[in-house]
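Researcher: Next sequence.
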Amino acid sequence: MSSEEISIRASGVSKCYHMYDKPVHRLWQSVLGSRKRLYREFWALQNVDFAIAKGTTFGVIGKNGSGKSTLLQIVCGTLEATTGTVERTGKVAALLELGAGFNPEFTGRQNAILSGGIYGLTTAEITERLPSIIEFAEIGEFIDRPVKTYSSGMFVRLAFSVITHVDADILVIDEALAVGDAQFTQKCMRWLREFKARGTLVFVSHDSGAVRSLCDQAMWIDHGHVMAIGDAKSVTEKYLASLFNQSQAAPAADHAVRDVLGAADWRDQRKSMINASGLRNDIQVFHFDPQGASFGVGGVKLTQVVLEDSEQRPLSWVVGGEMVSLVIQARASAEIAQPIVGFFLKDKHGQTLFGDNTYLTYLDSPPGVNRDQVFRAVFTFPMPVLPVGDYAFDVAIASGTQVDHQQLYWGHDVLIVRSVSTSVSTGLVGVPMLEIGIEVSSDEH
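Model: Next structure:
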């Protein structure tokens, strides 16, 4: 790639820290100079080379302590490399450590103004954009309180809001978003996906799912060394293989597979044991939020989204693997000839885990809805077993067909659920197993 096509180029970047056993040794070292060494060398990075093309979303993945944050600081220019160089093309904005660059004694408003100036905005631009920064942050009256009184989530809200308004060409995000609440994290992920269309994004995480979902290219770092660079899928697979030592796994033994898929009353054979243990997948259900972000041409108003049990009782707590119904209720303010109601369940990174809609069910005879009529869509399914974390339902209502329709309403994050315990050890979701077993052949030949 030519230099005009590159946003960031790192060449031979290494970073060495001097580790002293006692604080006084640092002073003695300045006196002794090169005559005697009182420190141990710790190389956080060694000979790191990479180039990121303009418009690319580039992931950096690795375990805690692998050198990811050190590399980010060097890329952003807040830390100097011991050897090597980093070239950047365009304005860089970064969200690294919580509260980095904020004066704890200043209010949120004052810090937003200060940060805007640091990023190169003029006084007029800051004045013009400040109301939008405050609105995006959604911290209410805390904007005029000292940031030393903020929670970690408030720090993230304000810091992220500032970087969305500074016209950056390159955006560098560390794992700070992990401390935000579910709805704000979803809001940030939507903005990041929009930013990907116009800028270069460097996203750093030890979460392989997030890197695979967001990034085009990725780099795996371990103990300061580059282990792999390439497309996000292949790099994250290599990273996971190292974590789980997949190369050492023994091949599975041949076994007979019985036809159990046709069982009418299937159940997970481990369900009773799991549900009686601390591994039961407990999922907290929060109230429907009609005020969340949405879009559409109108003609319908969403009035309720709720999870119910088999007796149509609203649930505030769900157990993964149990049957539930997602009920979506709305009122039409105009006639809807061919209504389609659908939903998605997303994880904290905005990845769609599963979803469905009513179109195929009513393909031949779509039910029309008149003006001022209330209508409901009900989706009944076994609740998947979810890893610990926050999740959000998106709900959409359209008119027309699957391939040719008008979007009346699309609501983001209208229902939040939180998995607080789980039996899932890997993957995005777990499903109840119809049968699990090990069959060992006899020793006779």
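Model: Residues 245-264 have pLDDT under 50 and may be disordered. Residues 282-419 form a domain with the Coagulation Factor XIII; Chain A, domain 1 fold (CATH 2.70.50.60).
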